[in-house]
Design brief:
Length: 684
């Protein structure tokens, strides 16, 4: 119960001092209420440790849940960070499949000086039928081929050039020798010979572009071509008939190029990522927190588009499908929250575990502009799943043992009790083991030792029934209910009363927990939540019937009065404490001045002058013990109280002959504090 202080100013009586100091300054005698304190059992032990009995008596029980060790999801499932690196260079960037066509008409060939008179006749007979004479070893020379739609210039790592020649002339072509040349320096790209192409027939062949540099302006140089002519047959002469040359570049990977690069996927990786969980096998989990983080750096002159997909990770029915852009000559960071996603851990084909299927795609959109790119240009991608913490997981936790301890935990149950001896009759103590995970477990309690650090006392628990004995804990039956095991400890099977009798402030313990001791009997249906625990505790309940030798109630009091009184002007005087003691034991009262550093600077009462008689036993406390304790304070003590404005009140409860008494929730120890002193007044 929180103390309530009543502060007010009451001038009970005053008289002008024996001698006049001046016309403006004099002493008066004053009686002033300073504070009202009310101490209950709540000033001994925290409210959460106290419970009223179910009957109407209002008697109190001390209740404590002293936690020992807990195992939680971090003990069973730690998801490792997964990260990947991908560097995409021009080796994976292609110019695509591109085609260009070039026609060489019969009229163009006829005008070639190499055909002489025969060519002039062909031109003159255009539209008429004529027997075409044989042509022998004609050098047709160079015909320009414009390949700038493919590239301006390119040096190839790999690729092929498919050549197709269709003979649209009415006569066979034989003994053809040709070259494809760069216009700039006549360097040969390909050279070949063709034995014959019949009228309306074709010739096709493929040539490697590896390690060749090709410009966009080419020449097709026919160094030799023959024809047997049409013999005695007359054929229709059409000077628009043509030899159709088709060039198709395929799989063109370049070490450097100035070209219009087509839209394309540079990366299309689909992979199952397997988590190494060191034993546990999970099929599914829900993510509580985590993120997908990206870092991209690109020197490629076009913007890259990155798509990262985990088809089996969904939220509101939608899978993870993250998009980000990597602009030219820039480093970009991005992060995507995984909170709340449901993750299928059975892989791409749903036949495994601890595995998620993910897809990374890097796409280049064509700008339609000429760009120069070399092997030094690249895009670097670093990405991964980081700090993943599951909210819920289903699978097999794995048969594993956890040795917890030797470990120490503080015991706060008696922290506010200052007593040389404490006897607690009708003690009820339970060793409580709680299993909040959906997997069976077993526990072995190796030892528990109570320690009082103030007195250096230690007592180990003696209980042959439970210590060293495997304790079987069933799995939690569902997601809302825990499985529990309660083992009573009392004077018939243990020395638990001796343990608590030394008022321990900590417990030393050693536990051994084993999860899934019989293996994967659930067939991957174990479950665990983020807040699920396997825990052990000592649950203590004792009626507050205490044999007491020096039990102390304590509270801090802040004296305060109206602005009309300034305690620093007090010359000397007496502090009176009128006490009403409802406890059925005698009490000794002490007041301390608390300094501004939270340290006691002075005690106000001698031990022989501050005993308050006991109240009458009973739930009503109708006959409290009463008394008044007075102490004379010096001017300096009054001024110290005025300066720091804090007092500590301690009430020590004592029993005669160490008898057992019963404490009630409506028991009070009240104190009204007044000050009677000489006060120096001034009109200044």
């Amino acid at each position: 119960m929180k103390n309530k202080f009543i502060y007010f100013f009451l001038l009970a009586s005053f008289a002008i001092g024996g001698c006049k100091l001046s016309d403006k300054q004099w002493d008066i005698n004053m009686l002033v209420p300073l504070a009202h304190a009310d101490l209950t059992i709540n000033n001994l032990i925290n409210d959460t440790s106290l419970k009223k009995s179910a009957d109407s008596s209002g008697s109190l029980y001390l209740v404590s849940v002293q936690s020992l060790k807990s195992l939680n999801i971090s003990n069973f499932l730690t998801v490792p960070d997964t990260s990947f690196q991908k560097t995409v260079s021009l080796k994976t960037l292609t110019l695509g499949d591109r085609t260009l066509k070039q026609n060489i008409t019969l009229g163009q060939v006829a005008k070639n000086p190499a055909l002489g008179l025969s060519g002039q006749i062909l031109i003159a007979e255009n539209g008429h039928k004529l027997a075409i004479p044989p042509i022998a070893n004609a050098a047709l020379g160079k015909t320009p081929v414009n390949a700038t739609t493919l590239f301006t210039t390119a040096t190839f790592i790999d690729g092929s050039l498919q050549l197709n020649i269709y003979n649209g002339f009415p006569v066979p072509l034989t003994h053809i020798h040709f070259e494809l040349l760069n216009q700039t320096n006549d360097s040969v790209i390909i050279a070949d010979s063709i034995s014959i192409i019949m009228p309306h027939g074709s010739f096709s062949n493929s040539y490697s572009l590896a390690h060749k540099t090709v410009s966009g302006n080419l020449n097709l140089n026919i160094t030799q071509m023959s024809s047997p002519g049409s013999g005695t047959d007359s054929v229709l002469i059409d000077t628009t008939n043509a030899i159709a040359v088709t060039l198709t570049g395929s799989n063109m990977q370049v070490s450097s190029a100035t070209a219009v690069f087509p839209a394309q996927n540079l990366v299309n990786d689909s992979v199952d990522v397997v988590y190494d969980l060191h034993g546990p096998v999970f099929k599914y989990f829900i993510i509580r927190s985590g993120s997908i983080d990206f870092k991209t750096t690109s020197s490629i002159h076009d913007t890259m588009h990155i798509t990262y997909t985990i088809p089996g990770a969904t939220k509101s029915g939608e899978p993870i499908n993250e998009h980000l852009n990597a602009p030219p000559n820039a480093t970009v960071y991005d992060s995507f929250s995984l909170n709340g996603y449901h993750v299928d851990l059975t892989g791409q084909y749903h036949n495994t575990s601890n595995t998620f299927y993910n897809i990374l795609q890097v796409h280049l959109d064509s700008t339609g502009k000429l760009e120069h790119i070399s092997l030094s240009d690249s895009i670097y991608i670093f990405y991964g799943l980081f700090h993943v913490v599951p909210e819920y997981a289903v699978g097999y936790l794995g048969t594993r043992s956890y040795i917890e301890g030797p470990e120490s935990v503080p015991m706060d149950f008696f922290k506010n009790i200052s007593a040389n001896k404490l006897n607690i009759p009708n003690l009820k103590v339970t060793l409580h083991i709680n299993n909040g995970i959906g997997a069976p477990a077993s526990a072995i309690l190796k030892s528990i030792t109570a320690v009082n650090s103030r007195t250096n006392k230690q007592i180990p628990l003696i209980c042959s029934k439970y210590i060293g004995t495997p304790l079987v804990i069933p799995a939690a039956p569902d997601t809302l209910t825990s499985a529990t095991l309660d083992l009573p400890l009392d004077y018939t099977n243990s020395n638990i009363s001796d343990l608590l009798g030394i008022l321990p402030d900590k417990l030393l313990y050693l536990f051994n927990f084993t999860v899934d001791p019989d293996g994967n009997k659930s067939n991957y249906r174990d479950f665990i939540y983020y807040k699920s625990t396997i825990s052990a505790s000592l649950n203590i309940q004792a009626p507050l019937e205490l044999g007491i030798d020096g039990l102390v109630l304590q509270d801090t009091i802040v004296p305060n009065i109206t602005n009309n009184i300034d305690l620093s002007r007090v010359q000397n005087g007496t502090m009176h404490i009128a006490v009403s003691n409802g406890y059925p034991v005698s009490a000794k009262l002490q007041l301390y001045i608390l300094g501004n550093t939270n340290k006691i600077t002075d005690s106000l009462f001698s031990s022989s002058a501050n005993t308050i008689p006991a109240g009458s036993p009973g739930s009503g406390n109708t006959a409290p013990g009463t008394g008044t304790v007075s102490v004379t304070l010096s001017q300096s003590q009054w001024q110290e109280i005025a300066s720091n404005k804090r007092l500590i009140m301690k009430v020590t409860l004592n029993t005669a002959n160490k008898q057992v008494v019963k404490i009630y929730s409506n028991t009070h120890f009240t104190a009204k504090i007044t000050g009677q002193f000489r006060y120096r007044n001034s009109t200044n």
